Amino acid sequence: MPRYQITAKDIQGNQIKKVIEAQNEEDAANLALEQDLYIEKINRLIHEKIRMRPAEKMNFIRLLAVTVRSGLPLLRGLRTILRENNTSQINILVLSLIAELEGGLSLSQAMENRDGLFSELEVSMVKAGEASGRLAVTLQQLYDFQASSYKFRKKLRSALSYPFIVFSFSIFVLIFFMAFIVPKFKDTYSSISKKLPEMTVFLLGISSWMNDNIIEIFIGLALCIIASVYFIKASKFKIYGERLLMKVPVFGKLFYWGLVVRFCTTLSTLLENQVNFLTSLTIARSSTDSEWINDRMINLIKYVKEGNSLSDFFNKEEIFPELAVQMVQMGEETGKLDIMLKNTAEYYQENMEYSMQNLESILQPFVIIFLGIFIAILVLVLFLPLFDLPATLNISD
CB 66: neighbour CB atoms within 10 A? Predict the structure, then answer.
């Protein structure tokens, strides 16, 4: 529903600004009159779609946390950010937030109106901070959570994408070698009367086929990439893709531990800021961005609403490792669930970072050796007939 910013005076003659939701300007004016407000000015708030990179949004949260923690009133803090900041997207965001705060909305309500820019987790934490009077602390915790999650996701993405990059590079080298290098030897070998080795004939045959169908090959690769992207994004296929990935040695364990870390970290942060337990569970479930987790936890809220514990659900569904389940159970028994979830996340994150370091140290020399052997075999097969060339020339003489 459209929102209108109204500048008006109340019965005492005090000037106020207020944001009213209404179907049109006339309805907004009528709603204001019903509240005994005498309208001076009315403007429709038009929200420009704001797109921000995760790093930009983290920077905004950090700046806001600093200004609020320093004791500045919220509006004055936002205006300070506006003066000191040079990022256009942040400035657009700050201006829109100022307009709604001046209209009487809270910070969490203004953030919620930003058309999906802020996640449910971010809005819920700010709302809890406002209710508890700990907004400065909450904003700092939110920034720390975002920064930690951002760094963690980058590391995990890097570790999981490394084999894909190597495989793609190998395919590119193979296509380049077969399409542009091998054909140059074809004319040379055609003048040799001696029968060529079978491996060389096979290599030249593949090269000829690739040269004749190079356009079709690139179209096929492009279609494979498009199909892969669709497969990754489509939820019904994503579940099977995630299940398949979790069965891959080493990489499957990293991916699985990553889901545990994200769920536990999110739930711990929300509970620490006194967000409603059921709301926290819903947000933590969606924060993993995993269709497999969403599918396995589809009955989680209903199960907990019926009076069952979180650890019982994890035991029943076998979603998380036994150690994580035991730590959750201990947290429920001691009333320190947020602390135990945080400890669980830290434990699996340390395991992941250690495994990723080992993986990089093992993969790097392995990849170099693999590519070296791969290229050496191609070169050897290609140059094999040249080793017999002197003997062939002597016979012909």
Answer: 17
* CA-to-CA dists, residue 124 to 49, 305, 320, angstroms: 21, 20, 25
Please count the other Cβ atoms lying within 10 Å of the Cβ belonging to residue 137: 15
Give the count of domains, the chain.
Answer: 3
Q: Given this model, what pLDDT does residue 395 score? A: 47
Q: Is residue 152 part of a domain?
A: no
Nearby residues of 324 by Cβ (< 8 Å), 6 or more positions away? 260, 264, 314, 344, 348
Helix (H, G, I), strand (E, B) or coil at 311: helix
Please list the alpha-helical segments (H only) found in 15-102: 25-34, 54-69, 74-84, 88-102
Other beta carbons within 10 Å of 332: 15
pLDDT (tens digit per residue) in 185-199:
776 777 666 677 777
Q: Are residues 137 and 285 in the same domain?
A: no
Span 150-201, pLDDT tens digits? 887 787 777 667 767 777 777 777 777 777 777 777 767 776 666 777 777 7
Domain assignment present for residue 201? The answer is yes
Same domain, 217 and 310: yes
Residue ranges making up the domain that contains 368: 162-397
Distance CA 239, CA 231 (A): 10
**Residues 58 and 35 occupy one common structural domain:** no
Amino acid 381: pLDDT = 77
Place of tokens 């991916």: 255
Angle at 232 between CA 371 and CA 344, to 5 degrees: 90
Q: What are the φ and ψ backbone dihedral angles of 378, each rounded to 5 degrees?
A: -60, -45
Q: Please tell me the predicted confidence (pLDDT) of residue 397.
A: 47
Residue at a domain's end among 117, 145, 173: 145
Q: Is residue 296 part of a domain?
A: yes
How many CB atoms lie under 10 A from the CB of residue 344? 27
* Sheet architecture: strand order including 38-45: 15-21, 3-9, 38-45
Provide block-wise average pLDDT over 10 residues at a time, the chain (397 residues). 73 75 77 79 68 85 89 87 75 82 84 81 85 84 85 75 74 77 73 71 80 81 80 69 80 86 88 86 83 83 86 86 90 90 90 79 75 79 68 49
How many other C-beta atoms are found inside a 10 Å radius of the C-beta of residue 18?
19
How far, in Å, CA of 57 to CA of 146, rounded? Answer: 9
Q: How far apart are CA 268 and CA 339, in angstroms?
A: 7
Shared-domain flag, residues 123 and 259:
no
Enter the tokens of residue 90: 């942040």
Look at residue 12 and give its three-state secondary structure.
coil
